[in-house]
Write a structure and sequence with these properties.
Blueprint (H helix, E strand, L loop, with lengths): L6 H9 L7 H20 L1 H8 L1 H27 L7 H9 L1 H36 L12 H14 L3 H25 L17 H17 L7 H11 L3 H31 L4 H10 L3 H8 L3 H41 L4 H25 L3 H7 L1 H18 L9 H20 L4
Helix pairs in contact: 2-8, 2-11, 2-14, 3-4, 3-9, 3-11, 3-12, 4-9, 4-10, 4-11, 4-17, 4-18, 5-6, 6-7, 6-14, 6-15, 6-16, 6-17, 7-14, 7-15, 8-11, 8-14, 9-18, 10-11, 13-14, 17-18
């Protein structure tokens, strides 16, 4: 198990044969892409439109390398555990039950943020589209039955497991990725450099403030860490050699990252050149996504049709993807608590997924009815993500002797990014 970190090298040297890239690997690449594109197309273009070119470029320059290093570190550190299982179990193995409970709670909060944001976006955007296309006179988002029906169906699909998600999400994500590129091209006739603010904020402090405030949006535009542990566990279940399983997980992550960087950046900058800062501020005030905004303000049926289709497909597939990690985190917390007070039986384990599905549906519906801003949620919950996704893996590398082999300068960069994410909300208070 100690050689997992170098598994890709030792496999190639001993067998001389390349590990095949199967349809199962491709399915996880697709799910990683689906997990990331949802947040990227919903939030980042609006923030770029508000803050301008140079602030956005600086935030992206910090975030994208950090996401690459972070994903690799996350997979390697979790794979090195003796028994690759849910996040809580792995942290418990490394640091003990109490630490496992504390860290799994933070992990759960991070994933809950994503679930809440996607649930709200699904409801509000679908209601917005029904109005735009004349199906309804008023928004259905304020009702209780509309979000309950939509979220209930989504949770029911997502809770059926990865194999069904491959069948349901796979085609959706392929369509989504294609539309991202087509939509970016379709918006090119509406490019106008006059829409873009190329002036840096006045003073170094203002520039640093705006970069740090924009940092969460840049990170979340391509991050898919929420699905890495479920993917890691899945490869360990189908692959007898842990080193091979880790190699396959790392390879799937690398392919997803490359595809995301190219496609998301092209779409985001195409949007930036097509939408004014005032229009971006309007979308934020109305709690609607960049794509719903594009359907409203850019003339022509092509952009409206593509943006509508992409928004629906993107958010649905991202919701399905993040539910795997959310279920994993909530299950870990429940089991951690239950094992302290009782001896679990087969009935408990069988009913637990149903209980999680029902609780998730009710919680998400209540959040949507409360109508709290999704962008505000993303910004203020960033410290939890910085701790769980950046600082904890780095801490494990320095704390756990078995992970010593992963120490490198890239780990320090990930830790630095985690600190920036933790303090980012403080700089939000300094905005005028």
């Amino acid at each position: 198990m100690a050689n997992i970190g170098s598994g890709a090298v030792s496999i190639g040297q001993t067998s001389g044969s390349r590990i095949p890239f199967t349809a199962y690997d491709a399915g996880w690449v697709v799910l990683c892409i689906g997990m990331a594109i949802g947040s990227g197309v919903v939030f980042m273009p609006l923030q770029m439109g508000i803050k301008g070119f140079w602030t956005s470029a600086a935030a992206l320059g910090i975030s994208y390398p950090a996401v690459h290093y972070l994903s690799n570190l996350y997979i390697r550190s979790l794979s090195a555990s003796g028994e690759c299982k849910d996040y809580t179990g792995i942290i418990t193995e490394y640091l003990g039950k109490n630490w496992g409970m504390l860290m799994s709670a933070a992990y759960f909060l991070t994933l809950t943020k994503g679930m809440l944001a996607y649930a709200a976006t699904i409801t509000h955007d679908s209601a917005s589209y029904l109005q735009v296309f004349g199906v309804t006179q008023q928004s259905l988002a304020s009702t209780a039955w509309f979000p309950l029906c939509i979220i209930g169906v989504m949770v029911a699909i997502a809770s059926r497991g990865e194999r069904l998600l491959f069948k349901v999400s796979g085609p959706l994500i392929v369509v989504k990725l294609s539309i991202v590129l087509i939509l970016g091209l379709s918006m090119m006739p509406y490019w106008n450099l006059g829409n873009v603010n190329f002036l840096a904020p006045d003073g170094a402090l203002s520039f640093v403030r705006d970069v740090l405030v924009s940092l969460p949006f840049a990170v979340f535009s391509i991050v898919y860490i929420q699905i890495l542990n479920p993917m890691n566990v899945a490869f360990r279940k189908v692959e007898s050699d842990p080193a091979v399983a880790t190699y396959r997980a790392l390879r799937a992550s690398k392919y997803a990252y490359i595809i995301l960087v190219v496609s998301v950046l092209f779409f985001a900058f195409s949007f930036l050149f097509s939408i004014t800062a005032d229009e971006a501020r309007y979308a934020v005030s109305q709690n609607i996504s960049a794509l719903a905004l594009a359907a409203r303000v850019i003339p022509g049926d092509t952009v409206k049709l593509l943006s509508t289709t992409l928004n629906i497909v993107a958010i649905l597939s991202a919701f399905l993807g993040i539910y795997l990690g959310f279920h994993d985190a909530l299950k870990g917390i429940v089991l951690n608590v239950a094992d302290r007070f009782m001896t679990r039986g087969t009935t408990f384990d069988r009913l637990l997924p149903f209980g999680i599905a029902i609780a998730s549906t009710l919680m998400l519906t209540g959040w949507v009815v409360a109508n709290i801003s999704s962008m505000a949620l993303l910004q203020w919950s960033t410290p939890a993500f910085g701790i769980v996704s950046c600082l904890i893996p780095c801490y494990l590398v320095w704390r756990v002797p078995a992970l010593k082999k992963f120490r490198a300068q890239s780990v320090l960069f990930v830790a630095f990014t985690g600190v920036l994410l933790c303090i980012s909300p403080l700089f939000k208070l300094l905005e005028h």
